[in-house]
Design brief:
globular; alpha+beta; about 15% helix; six-stranded mixed β-sheet
């Protein structure tokens, strides 16, 4: 078996529970990584990681924050560093990223920025060879220590599992737009449903994503829109089938605190980004809403944050 050399999954000689220990099907991804200065770390260990304390991420009386953000590209190093800076300033532990637009040969790429950890599955190129899409995760040092596995499912879906009590499963998704072929959107949502079905019922599940879906008042408690679009109907079916809720539609917020996307041409605002959790965990969600705090990254989306 090839030695693990990335800084995010457990280092060589460090024993953590694995997916196999817990009878899960998610594969551990291993590979090289590079730090802020571009030098390699062959040990795979964070130089500052000398702690012997439990790596569990989610514990009673110790809230943590996860969020989702369509970054609209972090290919340029400056934007990637600004993303890491905002992430750190907001004390986020797990950030699901959509549209990073980083194309790389490796199926999964690991890197470290500003003391935080970035995991990306490769973006793809469209017919004009422009880089588009790509999903990933940014992790705090605490979340990195708790990470068990990372599994890229497709160009639009990434799954990660973290040590916690109970185990935390995070699915990062980037949906086709509402104007994409109907078959493409339906196949995507069906795939997400298949993945959710494979997550053990006792796990804490969070789906972080740009769903490109609008929910009307008949389908969400506190929504920005007056009607549900096609992607929204697919999202409603997903919520219903798997007993989920969209956390950022559950809290009474002013209408201006609900939208997540601003069209730069028309100035129209939309609510497209959501964090999904199982209904049985609704009382564990302390708050969920969009914030302007990542505006310096240069995206047309707002970050959606959830405190658990």
């Amino acid at each position: 078996m090839q030695e693990n050399t990335n800084p995010i999954l457990p280092a060589a000689g460090v024993r953590r529970r694995t997916a196999e220990d817990c009878s899960t099907s998610h594969a551990t991804i291993t590979g090289g990584w590079r730090d802020d200065e571009g030098s390699s770390n062959p040990s795979g260990r964070d130089p500052s990681d000398n702690s012997t304390a439990s790596n569990a991420l989610l514990r009673c009386k110790k809230p943590f924050t996860m969020a989702t953000f369509n970054a609209s590209t972090v290919r340029e190093e400056g934007r990637a560093r600004e993303l890491a800076h905002c992430f750190k300033q907001c004390n986020i532990d797990i950030l699901g990223i959509q549209e990073h637009r980083k194309v790389h040969v490796e199926e999964t790429q690991f890197s470290r920025l500003e003391g935080q950890y970035l995991v990306t599955s490769s973006a793809w190129r469209n017919l004009s060879q422009a880089a588009v899409g790509g999903v990933g995760l940014m992790l705090s040092p605490k979340a990195r220590k708790a990470l068990r596995t990372v599994t890229p499912i497709s160009e639009r879906i990434l799954v990660a599992e973290f040590d916690s009590n109970p185990v935390t499963t995070v699915i990062v998704i980037y949906s086709p737009t509402n104007v994409a072929p109907v078959e493409e959107a339906e196949a995507f949502y069906e795939k997400v449903g298949e993945i959710i079905r494979d997550v053990p019922a006792h796990n804490f599940l969070a789906v972080l994503g740009d769903f490109n879906a609008r929910l009307g008042p008949e389908d969400a408690l506190y929504t920005y829109h007056g009607e549900t679009n096609h992607n929204g109907k697919l999202l409603v079916d997903l919520l219903t089938e798997h007993d989920l809720l969209a956390a950022n539609t559950q809290f009474r917020k002013k209408r201006g605190k609900r939208w997540t996307f601003l069209d730069r041409c028309t100035r129209a605002k939309r609510q497209l980004d959501y964090i999904l959790v199982r209904k049985k965990w609704r009382n564990s969600v302390l708050n969920a809403e969009p914030y302007h705090t990542f505006c310096t990254v240069g995206s047309d989306h707002r970050v959606v944050s959830m405190r658990v």
